[in-house]
Amino acid sequence: MVTREEVLAYMQQESYRPLTYEEMLEVFAIKEEDMVKFAKLLGRLEKEGEIVKTRKNKYGLPEMMNLVKGTMRLSPWGYGILVPDNPRIGEIFVYGRNLNGAMHNDKVMVRVHSLERIGGQRPEGEVVRAISRANKELVGTVKKGKHTLQVVPDDPRQIYPIYVKPSRKIKASHGDKVLVKITAWPDKDRYPEGKILEVLGRKGEVGLDVQVVIKKHNLRAEFPPEVIKEAREVAKPVSREEIARRKDLRHVRMVTIDGEDAKDLDDAVSIEKTEKGYRLGVHIADVSHYVREGSKLDKEAFLRGTSVYLVDKVLPMLPPELSNDICSLNAGEDRLAISCIMDIDEKGRVVAYDLCKSVINVNERMTYTDVNKILVENDEETKAKYAYLVEDFFLMKELSDIIRAERMKRGALDFNFPEAKIIVDEKGRPIEIKKRERGPAEMLIEDFMIRANEVVAEHMYWQEVPILYRVHEKPDEEALAKVNLVLGVFGYKIPPHARVEPRIYQKILEEIKGKPEEGLLSMILLRSMKHARYMPEPLGHFGLASKYYCHFTSPIRRYPDLIVHRVLTLLLEGGWKGRKRIALEKKMPLYGEQSTQQEIRAEEAERELESIKKAQYMQQFIGEEFVGRISSVQPFGFFVELDNTVEGLVHISTIEDDYYEFNERSCSLIGVHRGRKFSVGDEVKVQLVRVDVDDAKIDFELTEY
């Protein structure tokens, strides 16, 4: 029987022209007893959007019909951007009138009006059908009208209200937060319909925030009993037999360096000075030994894609029996690892490396705080406590500086955005917000992990084995044109028609460092770049200026790392057979797409809850005055950022000393009569006047004019 790969390969030939079902039967010499199977295969391929059936009942590839398959990203303003599955096709703009019922994150087929860019603008298109729906359940707020009951989704990108019928079993009142299941999908002329599954609570209710974020982003909060059972079965102590099969590195002095509250310790580092430089060991928990392909644990990890960190709550990718115990590189315990041991010269170049299955025993569980006390504060008490490791830490810092300098030399980008650390009490209420510190300890771990990821990615590339690469493509023309409009105001420019390389961005970042406009321009440069994603093709990593890059160093909390470990293990153990290779090659696109989607979902959930917690924290300060700096200026006002990273809006309607107009070229508000100017970086005094916790909105007003 013919396979899907053979059908697609045949259609991808340049000489192919659309064929009817009967003609396909003849081409593939399908026997009468296989006709039903073949018809089902074509039906599946059509349903998945891999092939298209024309009005004349002929089969062809979407690109032959001017159609593009991809994921629809909706804007709260009502339009959509199609992100094509094919990375070589640029994004496609879709007006709201042409969405035809497509919802945020749906997999859709779009008919393109023209793939050519006109004046740097994206090509435009229209949704012809939804291939698969991403949001079968949504969280929203109940709104009762005279004759209707609807749920308005919390996510503003879900632009359609969902009409629901009153239920006798579930009583939902106006303003309730609910979980709704969609029972009828929207189309060009109809809103979606749904059924309320659960009332989560009243709007503004204490303790509702985490639950709403979990439900809203469709995160998996609990592990099924069968997954927990399997985790307990595989979480066995390291056996002598397994140790005998591996390189024994238990004699090598090594440490883990993490945050105080971290429990899933998946990387340890070791270092020694050599005649020609340094020997750096990056030892990563061998999760693939415990989570076998196709197991219940593996299927659950695939669905989750990543661990999600919700302020004080973690939704781990793997059950605690693995993530916090047998897979975690806890000090003083024998643990299975995959080690990347690199010889690095004085210029930061890897001159030799060894990848091996190992058994390790970590000497100390270090924290960033304690390592920074040794490296920065020269704290005598901490140095005395870890006296036998102090030399290692200074050697690590020395090598880290060299590696970082080498990376920056080739053009890597280093965005220095302040991150918030939110401290909460036992009930989840925020009691303090402070900037998260990024000292030498945090930076050296980052540098070592990046270098190990690069070594593994390049090794796998030259071995010609299928893995997931971490891909970060260069910005497109439209994004660069928009960036240049803002850069020009401040006297900077990306040369038109120049080959876009990381060094161009790096040069601007260096020039704006320490200047008032640094925050705004850094954010604009960041937003001009595409979101990194996981793909089977090594398309390079623009932000790191790296030709080959993958994620290898966090298999406890990221599924792509687990996949890389699995393939590397097959390579190291000589189990790389033809059939296995073909099977994995087929799965990589699906692994990459799912992992990318889950990463975006996790990022959005983490960001949303952080904003809610910041609003909760600021409630207690209503009426108080603060000094902050303008972080961005918009036609409707400007945002002010406080020292603790909290941002709030000063709406233009509240600035009473003049009538202000937005100057797009200078990104500022300018008074019509008095000429006063509000620009990014200006220091202002403000009073906190309003906080909306549910929408995570904070409003300031100026106190001095």
UniProtKB/TrEMBL annotation:
GO terms for cellular component: cytosol. GO terms for biological process: mRNA catabolic process. It is found in: Cytoplasm. Its main location: cytoplasm. Residues 623-703 form the S1 motif domain. It holds the Pfam family S1. The keyword RNA-binding applies. The keyword Cytoplasm applies. SUPFAM superfamilies: Nucleic acid-binding proteins. Keywords: Cytoplasm, Exonuclease, Hydrolase, Nuclease, RNA-binding. Its EC number is 3.1.13.1. InterPro entries: CSD2 (IPR040476), NA-bd_OB-fold (IPR012340), RNase_B_OB_dom (IPR013223), RNase_II/R (IPR001900), RNase_II/RNase_R (IPR004476), RNase_R (IPR011805), RNR_Ribonuclease (IPR050180), S1_domain (IPR003029). GO terms for molecular function: exoribonuclease II activity; RNA binding. It catalyses: Exonucleolytic cleavage in the 3'- to 5'-direction to yield nucleoside 5'-phosphates. 3'-5' exoribonuclease that releases 5'-nucleoside monophosphates and is involved in maturation of structured RNAs. PANTHER family: DIS3-LIKE EXONUCLEASE 2, RIBONUCLEASE. Belongs to the RNR ribonuclease family. RNase R subfamily. This is Ribonuclease R. It comes from Thermosyntropha lipolytica DSM 11003.
